[in-house]
UniProtKB/TrEMBL annotation:
UniProt protein name: alcohol dehydrogenase
Family per record: Belongs to the zinc-containing alcohol dehydrogenase family.
Keyword line: Metal-binding, Oxidoreductase, Zinc
Cytoplasm among keywords: no
Keyword RNA-binding recorded: no
Occurrences of domain Enoyl reductase (ER) (ranges): 10-343
Entry cofactors: Zn(2+)
EC nos: 1.1.1.1
Signal peptide: none
GO MF entry, a single one: zinc ion binding
EC supergroup of this enzyme: oxidoreductase
Catalyzed reactions: a secondary alcohol + NAD(+) = a ketone + NADH + H(+); a primary alcohol + NAD(+) = an aldehyde + NADH + H(+)
Length: 345
């Protein structure tokens, strides 16, 4: 089968031919119908050789949707032909967080060598994807696969990030979304669907700000040196109750710290490598709570798919073939994708 692999550190991913995997006991083979490209893949492909944690070559793609193609021995929970989304942050499946479906918080996964598909083991940018357990599969129940693929990360991650702040997103509050890319454009929609908050979206690109407005942001601002002053102005000097940073660079974290209200939340989702100083003199107002969330839980994925089914969130996508995936990554790297790039193998 064809697969898009990261072969050598520092080199662009390539389309290669690899064997179709066979499901062992307990495993499920999916025929991939859609796979999203995430900026985290760009981050991973930017890591230096000495710090690279995964074995190469590695099939990319951690946002996967497919139909069940074959069942390993003993699998009875899913049936052939069923359309499913892959829940990506796999855990040990036995500990307390895993029992709650919060496998993204499994404390044993790293020690057991359990890594997500596309982030250490073969991912969804291929014709077929091997999934270790039917537990990782969430039925689509009618959601279009192209819509659903981005929801498994670009939807799930902001949903999980926003949920912690729901009590602060009351009427009259303001939420700031920094970076309106794959995750950010879904964050804007999730904030609108779940809360009455006023949404202020920031980006460095006019195209992305245009999309932000189209998907429901009340205000759009260029992410520059003036942004935090504008947010203060918009909020009568108080600042935003919640700031979600989908970039995580030094410059955006400075905006987040200067824009958040007393007792607000700063949630850093982006892997931009900046740091947020916490403590007296660090620049954050008193009572601010900061978080660095990772992906989301399986039940949260069910909920995000539920929102899509109701038409309350939709992924803005540009589609590509597997052959075009390397070019799509290059465009994502250059900031030249609006919404999410989705590959249809
Ligand atoms: P993306 O490339 O689709 O979007 C990034 C957006 O940020 C773009 O619209 C870009 O124009 C904008 N941007 C860049 N610099 C900016 C700045 N200084 N100010 C404002 N906007 C700026 O990326 P994505 O796939 O949406 O991922 C966003 C981030 O989230 C990445 O860092 C990714 O690695 C990370 N991520 C984290 C998790 C997690 O679990 N914590 C999960 C998925 C992705
Ligand atoms: Zn991702």
């Amino acid at each position: 089968m064809r697969a898009v692999q990261y072969l050598r550190v520092g080199h662009a991913p390539e389309l290669v031919e690899v064997p179709v995997p066979e499901p062992g006991p307990g495993q499920v083979l999916l025929k991939v119908t859609a796979a999203g490209l995430c900026h985290s893949d760009i981050a991973v492909m930017g890591w230096p050789e000495e710090a690279f944690p995964y074995a190469l070559p590695m099939t990319l793609g951690h946002e996967g949707v497919g139909t069940v193609a074959a069942l390993g021995a003993g699998v009875t929970e899913v049936t052939e032909g069923e359309a499913v989304a892959v829940y990506g942050p796999w855990g040990c499946g036995r500990c307390h967080p895993c029992a709650e479906g919060r496998e993204n918080c499994c404390p044993h996964a790293a020690g057991l060598g359990i890594v997500p598909p596309g982030l250490g083991r073969p991912g969804a940018l291929a014709e077929y994807l091997l999934v270790d357990s039917p537990r990782h599969l969430v039925p689509l129940h009618g959601v279009d696969p192209v819509q659903a693929a981005p929801l498994t990360d670009a939807g799930l991650t902001p949903y999980h990030a926003i949920r912690r702040s729901l009590p602060k997103l009351r009427p009259g509050s303001t939420a700031v979304v920094i970076g309106v890319g794959g995750l950010g454009h879904l964050a804007v929609q999730l904030l609108r669907a779940l809360t009455p908050t006023r949404v202020v979206a920031l980006d460095t690109s006019e195209d992305k700000l245009q999309l932000a407005g189209k998907v429901g942001a009340h205000e759009t601002l260029l992410s520059d040196g003036e942004a935090s002053a504008r947010i203060r102005q918009l909020t009568g000097g108080i600042g935003a109750e919640v700031v979600l940073d989908f970039v995580g660079a030094e410059a955006t974290l400075a905006i987040a710290a200067a824009s958040v209200a007393v007792a607000g939340d700063v949630t850093v989702v982006g892997l931009g490598g900046g740091t947020l100083p916490v403590g007296f003199g660090g620049g954050l107002p008193f009572e601010v709570s900061a978080a660095f969330p990772y992906w989301g839980s399986r039940t949260e994925l069910m909920e995000v798919l539920g929102l899509a089914r109701q038409g309350l969130v939709s992924s803005h996508v540009e589609t590509f073939t597997l052959e075009q995936a390397p070019e799509a990554y290059a465009r994502l790297h250059a900031g030249d994708i609006t919404g999410r790039a989705v590959v249809l193998p």
